[in-house]
Structures are given as structure tokens and as C-alpha cells.
């Protein structure tokens, strides 16, 4: 059971803020059935990141790496957004000063946003227009459903099942025929500088940084709440466990994202002070 006083405190902080940054990690998708990386059942407990999620691993054995990403694409493709994704999508659609930054590559924030847009268009008989691109997540670590060419760098959406039976069957570039790789950021790789810049800008200007379901161990993502704090904002955390970010948070809620976020983000915008 989570602490109702803590939720109330966090709700008041969020309710009086205009600029909100939400930073999510694997925990936000746990209730959708997507495995996290570092918990007791985390992927990195049974798989070695250096064999599956580094550029060296891909050069050494692209078939093995594609098999792993194909498996994850299939598994995640069958998952649905949970109540936390839905609450976040509604907040970012409804508040033009809210930004979502995610480390997740599972596409569930995007799916929740698409569904929230359809719902809004259906109930109001209008299109939300530009608010959709503004509400789209800033994806720090790429996407399971995109590929990048190892030669010409062409990037494209790709939701197909992966045939990783042999190296010859792996996905190839439609433009130059070279081997494709998953368009994700691996250990030892730099984040896209423009993406990182926009995430840092959002962190620096946020009055509240709401951190949901991340172990806070992977940088630069884990540094974003510190930027908010360094610029005079506050950090609120929702996690089932304490993390290194707990000590920088003014409010830390122990609970599952799918249970906590709907009530936390049901903010009455009429109470926002201009
Ligand atoms: N609700 C809230 N938090 C949860 C829930 C839940 N239902 N379930 C788990 N958590 C928390 C865990 O306590 C943990 O702190 O989510 C966090 C998940 O941590 P990680 O598995 O380390 O995931 P993340 O922080 O997103 O990892 C960062 O590491 O391997 C890389 O690129 C990968 O983007 C990933 C990055």
C-alpha cells in the first residue's frame, strides 16, 4: 500500500507546476508484461549485456544479437499500454508545457498516445493537431521497432518478425543492401546529440521532474533529474524500490506506476497558478 500523504504531497507539487518533465524507465512498462533489466526477474540477470547490447557484440555475432532483438520485438509487440502510459499520454496531450522523456524502446508510450488522440478526437469531433508531436516521447535509447543501416545510416520503421536463422536471412537495407541493425543505443555508444539536447533543455526548465520506474543507474538519463534540481526545480519519484535518485527527490512514492500514476496525474488544471 502506498503512502497517501506522499501521493497528496506529490499531487500538489504537480498541480502547481506548469513545466513538468516525466522521465520513464523499464518499470513503467512492467505491468504491461515487459521485463525490466535489473530487478530479480530482470533481463540482465539471465543475459549478458556485453554479448547482446554492444557494438562489439553485433560485429562479433550479428545473428545472435538480432535473435535477441527479434525475440524482444515479438514479446513487446504483444503487450498493451497500462494505466501509467495512459495517464502520462493524457497529461502530455492536455498540458502544452509537459514533456515526456523515456529510456524505453518498447513503443508503449507512443501507442498510449495514439489511443488517447483517437479518444480525444472521437469525444470532441476534432483533431488535436500539433499537440500530438509535442506530446510524443523524446526517446533517449531508440526503438525496438526501427532499424538503422550499418553502411548508409538509413533509418526506418520496422515491425516485421526477424528471421535470425542464419546471417544470410538477417534484415538488409532497402537502399544499399548492407546489414541493418536495431536502431537502439547500445552500451558504449553515444546518445543522439540533438535528442539529448532536447531532453536536457526540458530538464533544465522543468519545475517538477517526475521520475517513474527507472533504477537511475544509466547515464546520461539518470542525470536529467539532477539538472532539474540544479535549476531550482524539484524531483518526484515513483518506484517500487528505493534508487540512487530517491535521495534527490522531495517526494518519493513506493508503488507500482500503473496504480500510482492515474491518481497522481489526475491534476485539476484549473488550480494551476499562473
Ligand atoms: N512501477 C514502478 N517502478 C517499477 C515497477 C513498477 N510496476 N516495476 C519495477 N520498477 C522499478 C524497479 O524497482 C527499478 O528501479 O523500475 C526500475 C527498472 O530499472 P531497470 O530495469 O534498470 O530499467 P531502466 O532504469 O529503464 O534501465 C535503464 O538500462 O539496460 C539499459 O538501455 C537499457 O534503457 C535501459 C537502461
- Kindly, what is the distance between the CA atoms of the first and last residues, rounded to a whole number of angstroms? 34 Å
Indicate the proportion of strand residues. Answer: 15-25%
Strand order of the largest sheet: 3-2-1-7-8-9
- Low-confidence stretches are 268-274
Cofactors, ions, other ligands: adenosine-5-diphosphoribose
General shape: globular
Discrete helix count: 11
Q: Percent range for helical residues?
A: 25-40%
Helix/strand structural class: alpha/beta
Order of helices and strands: HEHHHHHEHHEEEEHEHEEH
Description:
There is one protein chain. The chain has eleven helices and nine strands. The chain is α/β, with parallel strands linked by helices and 274 residues long. The C terminus is likely disordered. The strands form two sheets. It has a six-stranded parallel β-sheet with strand order 3-2-1-7-8-9, with helices on both faces. Strands 5-4-6 form a three-stranded antiparallel β-sheet, covered by helices on one side. It binds adenosine-5-diphosphoribose (APR).
Amino acid at each position: 500500500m502506498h503512502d497517501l500523504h506522499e501521493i497528496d504531497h506529490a499531487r500538489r507539487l504537480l498541480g502547481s507546476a506548469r513545466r513538468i518533465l516525466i522521465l520513464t524507465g523499464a518499470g513503467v512498462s512492467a505491468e504491461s508484461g515487459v521485463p525490466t533489466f535489473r530487478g530479480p526477474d530482470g533481463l540482465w540477470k539471465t543475459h549478458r549485456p556485453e554479448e547482446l547490447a554492444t557494438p562489439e557484440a553485433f560485429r562479433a555475432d550479428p545473428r545472435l544479437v538480432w535473435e535477441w532483438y527479434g525475440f524482444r520485438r515479438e514479446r513487446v509487440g504483444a503487450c498493451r499500454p497500462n494505466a501509467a502510459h495512459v495517464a502520462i499520454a493524457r497529461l502530455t496531450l492536455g498540458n502544452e508545457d509537459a514533456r515526456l522523456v523515456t529510456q524505453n524502446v518498447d513503443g508503449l508510450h507512443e501507442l498510449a498516445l495514439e489511443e488517447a488522440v483517437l479518444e480525444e478526437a472521437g469525444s470532441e469531433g476534432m483533431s488535436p493537431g500539433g499537440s500530438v508531436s509535442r506530446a510524443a516521447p523524446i526517446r533517449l535509447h531508440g526503438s525496438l521497432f526501427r532499424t538503422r543501416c550499418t553502411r548508409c545510416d538509413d533509418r526506418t520503421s520496422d515491425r516485421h518478425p526477424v528471421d535470425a536463422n542464419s546471417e544470410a536471412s538477417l534484415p538488409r537495407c532497402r537502399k544499399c543492401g548492407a546489414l541493418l541493425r536495431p536502431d537502439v543505443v547500445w552500451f558504449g555508444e553515444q546518445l543522439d546529440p540533438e535528442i539529448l539536447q532536447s531532453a536536457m533543455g526540458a530538464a533544465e526548465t522543468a519545475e517538477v521532474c517526475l521520475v517513474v520506474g527507472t533504477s537511475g543507474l544509466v547515464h546520461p538519463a539518470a542525470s536529467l533529474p539532477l539538472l532539474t534540481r540544479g535549476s531550482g526545480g524539484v524531483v518526484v519519484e515513483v518506484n517500487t524500490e528505493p534508487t540512487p535518485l530517491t535521495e534527490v527527490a522531495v517526494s518519493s512514492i513506493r508503488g507500482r506506476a500503473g496504480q500510482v500514476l492515474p491518481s497522481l496525474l489526475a491534476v485539476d488544471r484549473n488550480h494551476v497558478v499562473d
